[in-house]
Each structure stands twice: as structure tokens, then as C-alpha cells.
Amino acid sequence: MTTAVVVGSGPNGLAAAIRLAHAGLDVTVVEAHDQPGGGARTSELTLPGVLHDDCAAFHPTGVASPYFSSLDLGRHGLRWLWPDVDLAHPLDDGRVGLAARDLSITDASLGTDADRWRRLFAAPVRNFDALISEALQPVAHLPRHPLTLARFGLTALQPATWVVRRFQDEPARALFMGVAAHAFGRLDRPLSGSVGMMLTAAAHAVGWPVAEGGTEAITRALLAELAQHGGKVVTGTRVTSLDALSDLTGTAPDVVMLDTAPAGALDIVGDRLPSRVRRALTRYSYGPAAFKVDIAIEGDIPWTNPDCLRAGTLHLGGTAEQIVGIEAATVRGRMPERPFVLLGQQYLIDPSRSAGGANPIYAYAHVPHGYDGPTERATDAVLDQIERFAPGFREQVLAVAVRGPADLERYNANYVGGDIGAGANNARQIVFRPRPALNPYSLGVDGVYLCSSATPPSGGVHGMGGFNAAETALRRL
């Protein structure tokens, strides 16, 4: 029987393993952590029984993923839950921009810009299924919907700062810029509008749901699907070389899938890499880091604008202009006094995450790559951003758990320098990650492939990097 080893058990690694197992390969997944899942885990980080997502938390690309949809993961207990409002962006004057599947909610929050917002997103939302199927494929492919892709590209190619010029008032400008900031990069550069366009279209088309019981429910469902087709998982084992895989499985595998950052691939494959591939992976750049703050609070956050209590996700960064400045400083390696903060209130739609009157709050700030400044300073900056839009919040805090960039890298070696996206989203790497090549998954070594978020279609819990890499391997077999 043809054998395969997948190194890493994040969503991409598990997707690759499932696709290969479906094709009849004997598959073993090897995970360094004592629990599978990569960034798709859930833990009691603050108080007993209070569940916090370790990294990934909101899943527009998960619910929209063509591969996940084909697996019918609901058979294995995965259940998506949607808030009334997918995203809220509060401002200092008390106003708030809202993104929701019900566009009337967005209209009411954006006022004079409601029609302009609808015009911008009408086509991407109407054609979202076709658009996402194109966006989640390798860059070099024959489009099935070329006109849809071309129309979207006219705006997506623009800097986010250009996209917001069409809006007259701050709620719409800030709402879009906050979504664009998910790129962890400069927002005045070409292609920086692409993330904002895609994720906002997803909010209106399919929403930003959470997984009931925590993101780990996605991992459990994928593991159940893999086991159903004979796949095995080995945890607590760090792979340091290709030769070590033979020791694990008893024979050299026919296929090796690396759900690792390029730095991990360099370590594991080493001198077997062709020089051109080794140079490209060595030059691969990583982006700003996350600084994670998980909080247990009593009651709800006392937002100045009560509409914020309807939202699963909030962006805290102020105006569009302020966010552009914050992200530019972060990319340059300077810690902002007021960092951009993403906050989650998953418990509002999933009370199973709360315990004993304590509710979990998920938050992380964008900080410079490898930030090693005072933990207290960064923690206070996150809490201050929440207090800025919810006076009295600190009085409700029961417990706090913090993970800085170094902690995140220890938790998951793919988060190099705390970069949870496994690579900088500059224009070159948005298009050509991990390297310019017709087949970005191949590492130039027979049977060895990269399948992580460092490959197209980049970050997110959608499994498409793993699926695409597995398809490449199966074609070559």
C-alpha cells in the first residue's frame, strides 16, 4: 500500500491527510504537541470550565470551504453558530459600524454610506460561491469564473486606503479598514484591499460563525473523518528530518506532507532541497505578531454602544486613519501605544464556553514581529483599548491569561516570531507564497510537499492548502 506521512495536524495537515486517506493511502499524521489541531484548539486558559480558543476563533472561510463542505463534518458533531451581527467596529463618538448577513443592519449603522457600501459589495456577495471557489485555489489555475474574478480583482488589487475613499463618513471607512487589517500589514500598499474585500463579502454572504464548544470541535470532526478512513495520529513527537519518518513508520513514506512554516521545511528537508528552493524559503518573510490576551469576566462587556453586544467579533482601533498608522508602525517594528485589537464574544451565541458566571473574552493585538517588550505594557494596551470603548470593563475582569509572540511560537512552531498567519501578507507573498512557482506546494524533492498556511490560499481554517497539496501529490502518484 502507498504510504503517506503528514507532519503537523493543523486544519491543513488534517485536510491533506483525509484527502490522501480517501484515495486509499495508508496515512499517519505526526504532531509535536501533545494534542492535535495546531491553531484549532480550545483550552481552559483562565478559570476552570471557561473555554478559550487558543488561536483561530471565527470561521468565515471554514463555513465557506469547498473541501470542508464536501466532508459533511456535521456528521461528526461540528455545528456552526452565528451571531446577529458578525462584526462591530466602535468609534470614540459612540457610533459603530456593523457588518451582518442581514444587510439592513449594516445599512442602519452606516447611514449616508449605506448605498455606497451595498454597491461595493453587491457583486462579491451575489457571486460569493464562485468567488470563494476561485480564491481558495492555487494562483496558477484556469478560472471557471474569469469575469467574476476579474471584476473582484479590480478593487482587490487596490490599497485599502484607496478603497475607503468612496465612503464619506467614518463608520464605513473604519469598518472596512478594520477588516483589511486582518492582513497584518501595510494598508497603503497594492493588494492590501483584497483581505478586506473578501472577508467583508464573506460576512454578508455566509457570516463569521464560531464552532459550538470551541474551535477544537473542527479538529475533532476532522480527526473522526480521518479515523473513519484508517488514518492514524501520533502526538508528542517532533519531526526533525525526513530520515526520522522512516523510524516512525518502519519504512520511507511515498508521500510526505509538511504542514509547517517554511522555516520548518528548511529544518526537516535540509540539504535535500534544491538550491533554488532553499534560497526562496530562506528569503521567505514573516509578518507582525499577535499578542494574545484571554480574559474571564463577570457578566457582559459594558460597551458604550449597546449594538456591540450583538456582535461575535469586534475590531478596536478607532478611525480608518488611526488603523493605517497603527499597522504601519507595527510593520516597521514599533509597538503602538494603542494597538489594533481583535476581540471575540463567542459565549454570546455559545454559552457552553462559560462556567460559574464567568464568561470568556478572546482578544489579541497586532504587535511587531518577535515583540519581546514588557508583557505588562502590551497587556495593559489591550485592556485599555477595550476600556476605551467600554468604560468600566476592567472592574469586571476575573482572570487574565497572556501569550506573547515567543509563547505563541512555543505553542506552535509555525508561528515564527508570533506570526500566526505563517508569513507576511505583502503584495509579493499574497500572490507568490511560499515562492514563485507553477506548483507552490512542491519542494523539489520527490514526494515531499508543503501544505501549510504558507501556501495558497494562505491563512484561515479552511483546509484548502492541505487539500490542494494532496491533489498535487495524487496527480504525481
Automatic annotation (TrEMBL):
This is NAD(P)/FAD-dependent oxidoreductase. InterPro entries: FAD/NAD-bd_sf. Transmembrane segments: none annotated. It comes from Nocardioides immobilis. Signal peptide: none annotated.
